[in-house]
Amino acid sequence: MNVKATGPITLGVIIGNRDFFPDKLVGECRADLLTAFQKAGINPIMLDESTTKLGGVETFQEAQKCAELFRKHADEIMGVLVVLPNFGDEKGIAETLKLARLDVPVLVQAYPDDLNRLDVARRRDAWCGKISVCNNFYQFGIKYTLTTKHVVHPSDPSFHTDLVNFMGVCRVVKGLRNVRIGAIGARPGGFNTVRYSEKILQRNGISVVTVDLSQILGNANKLTASDASVKQRLEAIKAYTPTGRTPDDKLVQIAKLDVVLNDFMLEHALDATAIQCWTSLQQNYGCNVCTSMSIMSENMLPSACEVDVTGTLSMYAMQLASGSPSALVDWNNNYADDENKCVLFHCGNWAKSFLPDIEISTAPILGTTVGEENTYGALSGRTPASPLTFGRISTDDPKGIMKAYIGEGALTDDALNTFGNRAVAQIGNLQGLMQYVCKNGFEHHVVMNASKTTGILKEAMENYMGWEVHVHQS
C-alpha cells in the first residue's frame, strides 16, 4: 500500500475535559485547532459539539462515543492528537484510545496558563494534566509523542512545527507497517553485505515479493521496438533525461525492461523494488537498469540495486519523512585528508532530483569486466550542495531485531573529478560514524535524502516500530 509522502493527512482528535474546570475553554480550543489544522494540512476527525459536552471527552460514555467515531474512520486515521485545554480526564482519554484500537502514533498537546488569569474562570492546569495523561498512556501501553514545549498554544510556531513533524512520523509508521517490496533477481554472489531476513521484515509488517530475474528478462525480450508500450516508455525516458551518446538500440533495450518492471510493480502493488544488476543484467541482457530505477525513485517508488531490500526500505522511510526522493549510495572514498568529508558514489541510479546535470551514460568500472557497451543505462551526474539526512535500516539476524542508524550533515560543492553518480558529504565526527558502522555490522550502502529529518525518523522507528535506532552525534 503506497503512502503519499506529502499532502493532507487525517488525524483523530481528542479534546480532553474535566468537570471542575471551565467548559468554555473546550469551545475556544476547537476554534484554535481548526485554524492550526488548515495551516498544516490536516483533516480532523473529532466529536461534534452536540455529541458530547462541547465535543470534549471526559466520561467513559463519551470515550465510547469518540472511539466509535474513530473506528468508523479507522482506514483514514493515520494518527491521533490529544489536546488538553484544561487538566483533562486522563482515564477518559486513555479509554478512548484503548476502545478505538487504532495502533497509530499519538501526539499529546497541553495549553499554557496565563499567569495573570489563574482565577477559577480561566485556570487550566493543563501543565499538570498532561503528566497525568501520559502516565495513563504508559500504564495502558499506549505509545505517544510529546510536543517540543511541555505546554504550547496551537497558534505558537513551535506547535506548527510539531504538527508537521508528527505528520511525517505518521506517514513513516503507516508506510513501514504496510510496505511491499519487490526483490527482483537473486542477490549477487559477491554481495553478502546485502543479506537480510525476510522473516524479521514480515514480523514488522514488511512484505517481500520475489521474482527470478530470468522471468523479467524473458518478458522484456518478447517485446519489440514497434510495441506501443515500448514506444511510450521510450518517449518517457527521453523526456526524463538527455540520452547522451547512447545508441538507439540500447535505448529500446532500456525501454523494454522498463515496461516489464512497471507491469510487475502494478501486478503486485509494490511500493519499492530491489533489483539484481551486477553482473547478470549486463551479461544476459546487455544494458544497465539504472535509468528505470532513477525514474521510479523520482516518482516516489524507490529502487535499490544489488537486491538490497533493506536499502530500498531505508529509501522508502526517508522519502516518507521528507516528502522528497532518496538515493542509495556507497560510503565510497575519503575526500583528500579531510576527516569529516567523504565521497558518496554509485554507478548511476540516483533520482533526478539529485542530478541537475543528468545524462544517460555507461558504467566504466563494471564495463572493465562485462564490456562498456553492455552498461548503457547508467546515469552520470553530480549532486550539488544541499542538506543531508543519511541512514540505514538493517535486519540484525543474530539478535533477531530491526536496527538502524541515522544522522545529518551536508552535501557540498567541493571539487570531485570522477564519473557516475557522485557527491561530497560533510559530516561531523565522520570517523566516529565509520567506527560505528563497521563495529555494528552495517552494510557499505547508505541512503541519502536532501532534508533534515532525523527527529521524525527516530520517533517513528524507535518509539512506534520498536527498532534499535542509533542517532549519530556530530
UniProtKB/TrEMBL annotation:
Give the matching Pfam families: Fucose_iso_C
L-fucose isomerase C-terminal domain ranges (all copies):
344-470
Q: Name one GO molecular function term.
A: L-fucose isomerase activity
Q: Which keywords annotate this record? A: Carbohydrate metabolism, Isomerase
Signal sequence annotation: none
InterPro entries in UniProt: Fuc_isomerase_C, Fucose_isomerase_N/cen_sf
Output the GO biological process annotations, alphabetical, semicolon-separated: fucose metabolic process
Identify the GO cellular component terms for this protein.
Answer: cytoplasm
Protein name (database record): Fucose isomerase
* Organism from which the protein derives: Spirosoma pollinicola
